[in-house]
Amino acid sequence: MMSAKSIPVEELDEQQARLELARLAAEILTHDRHYHTDDAPVISDADYDALKNRNRAIEEQFPALKRKDSPSEHVGGAVQDRFEKIAHRVAMLSLDNAFSDEDVIEFVDRVRRFLKMPADAPLAFTAEPKIDGLSLALRYEKGHLVSAATRGDGSVGENVTANARTIRDIPKALKGDAPDVFEVRGEVYLAKADFLELNRRQEAEGKQTYVNPRNTAAGSLRQLDASITASRPLRFFAYAWGDASVLPATTQMGVVAQFEKWGFEINPLMARFETVEGLIEQYRRIEAERASLAYDIDGVVYKVDDLALQARLGFVSRSPRWAIAHKFPAETATTLIEDIEIQVGRTGALSPVARLEPVTVGGVVVSNATLHNEDYIAGIGSDGQPIREGRDLRIGDTVTIYRAGDVIPKVLDVDLSRRPADSKPYLFPQTCPVCGSPATREINEKTGRMDSVRRCTNGLVCPAQAVEKLKHFVSRNAFDIDGFGAKQAEAFYHAGLVKNPAEIFTLQQRDDASELQKLKNRDGWGEQSATKLFEAIEASKVIDLHRFIFALGIRHVGEGNAKILARVYHSARGFVDAMTAARNAEGDAWSDLVNIDGIGPTVAHALVEFFGEPHNAAIVEELLVHVQPNDAEQVAADSAFAGKTIVFTGSLERMSRDEAKAMAERLGAKTAGSVSKKTDLVVAGPGAGSKRQKAIDLGVEVIDEDEWFTRIGS
Ligand code: IVH
User: What is the pTM of this model?
Assistant: First the structure.
């Protein structure tokens, strides 16, 4: 008999599912113990995640079978709940990545553009290795270590103070003069030799060996018993900071030099450069030394050296504009394309996926790779230029694939010498493989070229799009309804129970009135799970506005844009009305929308198109009958500019338009590109023309750039 372990989730019957859940609960528990208690994982993170995912998928398919000791209830292992939480006063951010020299050049150009700096004005950066460990925030008050917190989700971390005190690179008191408050941040890591020695010892004692230094460092730091941490030779490099009552220097280099005086280890390969060529040379030097370094690194981090410039540059979503991580090339492997399948996404995009002969890349088994779009398969890049020197990809081809970070693996190149003699170019479907409607490529307005993505043209009837929209609507960062995951979305859709998002909220009412089969009598459901689902649907009705906007699944409106729109339009009604009004391309609503910093014409068109489709508009209205999104909070409510609409016009001399807008938005203001009755303030530089005049005509206050700086106090 085939063991339940190898049956795809969709094909499990109830009895097999029950057995599988029991087996998975036991297996996951064993791995949790290996990882957290014994600190000796025996499988890779990816394999562990695969077990958890399978468990979750079965639970979603058979909600009634969910066990009391379900592994889904202890997220990421029990440890995370055992430590106290510490809220970071200054968020711990992540870094954007650069994968090529061009990306680095573009980063430096972007910084210059933002700061309105000419190409020849001096601008210095630091370059230093990106340590492959885990970040830690150390808070010193009057020079004494008072707390240590892991990164966690960036806002809240785990309190690992007792453990951090056992790490010899972490001073318990700072040497010399110290500020009242200073939070030193850096990376905890395990040296390669110490990792190997630890494994030798484990082996000699007949114990499990560890997977890699980073994992072991993380497991070692997050021990409830600090004496275990003490027995591991963890180390620490200081490279950044958070909350600080005063800064000891005005440059990145200067602060890090002070770290060393305070008694920290700093990375000896950190250096300062005034040209992008210098940065890239340092990257090559560090890459060449990589294998001989005592610790693992996975790239080089560049940071703007001048802290005043860092402050002006600020952040975009979770990453600073003033830094980037230049990653080393990802690991590659060679395998065979067994098949090419087409998936239809939420917006109708036909996405080709290569089914691969399974192969290991960097310790993870890979059996799929994205092929992006039909041009990519044909050997044409998004700029219309050849990629892989124009070599196309075919079923039966031998390809090199690579995996960078956690993203879906990609195809790097194809080995033509191993192409079967009878292979044929891949014919990309011209119709939607799900609904059969024509699939077309639009002209991209920006480039004037044909878009590389082919889309199903029948969004309203295509079941693939409807199901994907529904899945998106209930996904974690959208409505996140307990017991209503991707599997249920699919099952409910195909059973005709929920055909669109609004129908989720009438499900119970229809179920109550139903003379057909009630949910509790359906396969995989019961009284209790049905009641729980209805409760979860009820609970999801109170939702933040940005999640509501994100949930609608509008093209180009991801979480970031949804947050911007929520902040600008404040309420669901305000948002919907403005989007409807924006259909008039001559009106204020359109120009307000298109001028929101970070929105732009592509997103604006997508929004107008979405709300212009009567079917969508009707569903949104129906949703608003059931759901009450919370109004978005005003940011920086104590600033004099909170909630005000400001227009910058004419040429600004002290900063770029982008920087001026970012500054106004940090103060809670909304920036617009055109003047209307709703404008509160116009900042006009030299050369301002019709906008200044319109402001004067409408009686809107107009000030110059100097006055603006006076008012914001800088
Ligand atoms: S700077 C605001 N410098 O990389 C940016 N990070 O993706 C603060 N990391 O979570 C980070 N080496 O754990 C910085 N020399 C280095 C680093 C480094 C490793 C890690 C860090 C952070 C992640 C960012």
Answer: 0.58
